[in-house]
Design brief:
It contains 1 helix and 28 strands. It is mostly beta strands and 389 residues long.
């Protein structure tokens, strides 16, 4: 018996870390809103911890490099949340919304971080935009030199949000001023962004036609000019008032793939968009299995051959959330050999808000995990996924 037990210990010790989930941060309290980017060698994971923004470097075997570190330093007494991160070939830019006074109008802030985790001390917690109203939920992408930061902007009134952007150069200076990406009636929310070809593509869910929401997009060049008209990506009328929510987007070298959650149908859908802004697919690509119970919050990345879309899903251990995914062939998104697969689950615990990045031949999937045992204890976990899985 002792020999068998010892053998099992050796077996589990020998399991490579990429087969297992791993803790990125499980400090007391709550950690939320993870985001992740790759520098081509390692990953930077960031998240909201209480009222600060924190980060952790992770290598492509899932091993932590050094320890968690605070990004929004010198802002300890104020509320900082909902971060996003991108890499431009030299440094990361982390952005978030927060307030530093007590009128509680949220503004957009940023900070540069070197690939080794060194925090920029020159542009420390620099202000990207402050308006008469609040700004929320920034996202960021890079064209390889500069960054485009996009957010929900409530400066024009309290009844609806618009989508605005700002180009930031590698030193933290602004190229021109903030600009409107979409300011149609009734509100635009949940923006996401990537760079591909010679332009960015920003996508969001939109209430211009009132309820239900639809998915729109807009191309933007490297200096902040809108390229062409807005792109109606998923705007077909629905007799069931299906809400199309929180899109994400990735680029495969030729086309973009836009994915989103359908609230009422509880499915994950997608459509491809060319670099010229033409929607390729007349019908939605159904990414999640029809049999699944409820799915939402998709994220997508590309590995040079396939996309991997991840989302939170309650098909197992009902009604608890797990993390599922699906590989999607860029030229044949309906390939029947590509199936939904479980990325990670924990019996009796919720996993939610997944995000994903690809780098150095592997994906890193990151999520919120409440295996601390209650809804007031959320940690940040991750798992390495192989490109060929």
């Amino acid at each position: 018996m002792k020999y068998k037990n010892f053998g099992m210990v050796l077996f589990f010790m020998a399991l490579p870390s990429l087969l297992l989930s791993f803790v990125i941060c499980n400090e007391a309290g709550e950690q939320h809103c993870p985001s992740v980017a790759s520098d081509g060698t390692n990953f930077l994971v960031i998240w909201q911890d209480k009222s600060k923004i924190w980060g952790q470097l992770v290598d492509n075997n899932g091993d932590l490099i050094n320890t968690n570190f605070c990004i929004s330093t010198e802002m300890e007494n104020f509320h900082q949340c909902d971060p996003s991160v991108a890499f431009n070939g030299s440094n990361y830019l982390v952005v978030w919304h927060g307030y530093i006074d007590y009128d509680r109008n949220y503004n957009i802030y940023g900070r540069f971080i070197a690939p080794d985790g060194t925090l920029d001390q020159i542009k420390e917690n620099f202000l990207i935009f402050e308006g008469a109203g609040s700004q929320y939920s920034p996202v960021v992408a890079s064209d390889g030199t500069n960054f485009l930061v996009v957010w929900e902007d409530w400066t024009n009134g309290t009844l609806q949000s618009d989508i605005y952007g700002q180009i930031v150069d590698p030193t933290g200076n602004f190229i021109e001023s903030r600009f409107a990406i979409s300011d149609k009636d009734n509100g635009q929310h949940g923006a996401s962004i990537t760079f591909g070809g010679s332009n960015y593509l920003v996508v969001w869910h939109d209430y211009r036609n009132e309820y239900p929401s639809h998915i729109y997009g807009q191309k933007i060049d490297g200096v902040g000019n809108l390229v062409g008209n807005e792109i109606p990506i998923a705007t077909a009328p629905s007799s069931n008032y299906h809400e199309k929510l929180y899109p994400d987007v990735a680029f495969d070298g030729t086309n973009f793939l836009v994915v989103w959650g359908d609230e009422n149908a509880t499915k994950i859908y997608g459509k491809r968009v060319t670099i010229s802004g033409t929607v390729i697919d007349a019908n939605n690509i159904e990414i999640s299995d029809p049999s699944a119970r409820y799915r939402c919050a998709p994220k997508v990345a590309f590995d040079g051959t396939n996309y991997l879309t991840v989302w939170q899903d309650s098909r197992d251990w009902k009604p608890l959330w797990n993390i599922y995914g699906k590989k999607i062939n860029y030229s044949n998104p309906l390939d029947p050999s590509k199936k939904n697969f479980l990325i990670y689950s924990k019996y009796s615990y919720h996993l939610r808000s997944p995000t994903i990045a690809f780098g150095n031949g592997k994906y890193l999937v990151v999520w919120e995990d409440n295996s601390g045992g209650n809804n007031t204890s959320w940690d940040i976990y991750g798992k390495i996924e192989q490109k060929n899985e």
